[in-house]
Amino acid sequence: MDYIQLNDRTNMPLVGTGTNTFGKVDAEYRGELNGDFTPLETALEVGYRLVDTAISYRNEAGVGHTAANSGVKRSEVFLTTKIPTDDQYTISEDAVHQTIEQSLDHFETDYLDLYLVHHPFDSVKRLKLVWSVLEEYYEKGILKSIGVSNFTEAMIEEMKSFAKVMPEVNQIQSNPTEWNDDLIAYLQKENIAVTAWSPLKAEKAQRQQLAEIGQCYNKSWAQVLLRYHVQRGVVVIPKSHDREHQVDNLAIFDFELSSEDKAKIKAL
């Protein structure tokens, strides 16, 4: 596994597992919870060390319990979760405190590696309130790193007016349907690490082109696409319920895409 170093010198794995359908009936995002976290168990068994979840996924407790009881040392697992913008979680400083403490309870730990604001707030005042509490926990070392998700360049610039600690990560969409290259370039210039959600989203024709590129590397279209992300310094959190696919998604550090092939992928 390769890592990216955040502003606070924390090392974050470049590949992690998403979890938004884990523990749910028919592996559906909106499915009822069924307590089956076998996919997360296998992901940790085959070598994933970054686990990404969110309160809004409704499965934070199951993800946390599974990670805590996986047999993998706590110090070896990078745990990420996200606070929603809903009033019940963010209406006051006390509400934010309670939300963070509940996340800690769910993960059965006394610290979390990365805590993100899941979506932009309509109100800058509310963002200031939430961010100040995250900074408090950051200063105590309970939240090792703090960041945002789905924030634009303008929103990051707005944070410069009040943030004591700037976001260390922005989790955004990046894939052949929406690369977000300009935003990624801005974030990297600002020393804000980028995590790509839905990194494998691609249309059929795009997958075929990626598969053609992968032939000379003896790699699948998905491995080529994930390799493209990490070669440009972007963290990826592909999600799979299949053990073989999980293994394949980690097997991307034994080859390097040529400049020519990177240009082809960028143009998809």
Give the overall average pLDDT: 98
CATH fold node name: TIM Barrel
Strand order of the largest sheet: 3-4-5-6-7-8-9-10
Please identify, by name, the CATH architecture: Alpha-Beta Barrel
The helix/strand series, from N terminus to C terminus, equals: EEEHEHEHHEHEHEHEHHEHH
What is the number of strand segments? Answer: 10
% residues in beta strands: 5-15%
Query: Which homologous superfamily in CATH is the superfamily?
Result: NADP-dependent oxidoreductase domain
Number of separate helices: 11
| End-to-end distance | 27 Å
Layout of strands and helices, then pairs:
Elements: E1 3-5, E2 11-13, E3 17-18, H1 38-46, E4 50-52, H2 60-68, E5 78-83, H3 87-90, H4 93-107, E6 114-117, H5 124-139, E7 146-149, H6 153-159, E8 169-173, H7 181-189, E9 193-197, H8 204-215, H9 221-231, E10 234-236, H10 243-250, H11 259-266
Parallel strand pairs: 3-4, 4-5, 5-6, 6-7, 7-8, 8-9, 9-10
Antiparallel strand pairs: 1-2
Helix pairs in contact: 2-4, 8-9
Description:
The structure is a single chain. By secondary structure, this protein is an alpha/beta fold. It has a single domain, classed as Alpha-Beta Barrel (TIM Barrel), CATH 3.20.20.100. The chain has eleven helices and ten strands. It has helices at 38-46, 60-68, 87-90, 93-107, 124-139, 153-159, 181-189, 204-215, 221-231, 243-250, 259-266, and strands spanning 3-5, 11-13, 17-18, 50-52, 78-83, 114-117, 146-149, 169-173, 193-197, 234-236. The chain has an eight-stranded parallel β-sheet. Strands 1-2 form a two-stranded antiparallel ribbon. Strand 1 (3-5) and strand 2 (11-13) form a beta hairpin. The relative contact order is 0.13.
